[in-house]
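Known limitations

Structure tokens in this collection are predictions and should be treated as such. Users comparing against experimental data should check residue numbering before alignment. To illustrate the layout, the record for Basal-body rod modification protein FlgD is reproduced below. The input appears on top and the generated tokens appear beneath it.
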Amino acid sequence: MNISPIDTSALDNGANTTSKTRDSSTDPSAMQDRFLKLLVAQLNNQDPMNPLDNAQMTTQMAQINTVTGLQTLNLTMQTMAEQFSTMQQIQGISLIGRSVLSEGDRMSLDDKTGKGMFDLAGAASSVKVEIVTPGGVAVDTIDMGAQEGGRLNFEWDASKYQGNAAELRFRVTAANGETAVKATPLTQSQVLATGSKSGALTLTLADGSTVNYANILGVL
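Generated tokens:
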């Protein structure tokens, strides 16, 4: 028995009308509406001698429900991502003028006093901070002795240094007996501006560097 062609003009008209107000290719309601119209058209034009069985119909309905659910989830996640980005921007603006900590080996200078901080991964029986030139030459050493793990700070008298103390760096050596203990140097700098790179919030610091907001380890 011949099957008469499906008249899709009504579907096309409906799609044209819908596209004026929403994207029918991604809108879950529009997708489900098109599916139901096509299903009705398929039922109206099926071969009476070989009708569509219930299993086929159930499978098709399950498939469209799955696709609709995924589309709804994608739209929800996109909305949440946009809201999170907006919240990050607002939070970043509130940091302008504040001092933040990020990983780095620069000291801050207050008059003739150099100040620095670092994170010690665990207890250490010996902790030493070396003040070094950009080339890595040590100009002084601070012996901090035994220390518990955590965030520690130190001060160094920069008045005895004849060069430009602002160019100096520091490095930390820590050990517990013969076992080395990891020490992460931290740089303190003021936030001057905020920006965005690859969808992530960035902070422009007073020392000229730009760091990702996710890499900020503390706010002072």
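For this record: The chain has a mean pLDDT of 81. The longest strand covers residues 183-197. Please report discrepancies through the issue tracker.
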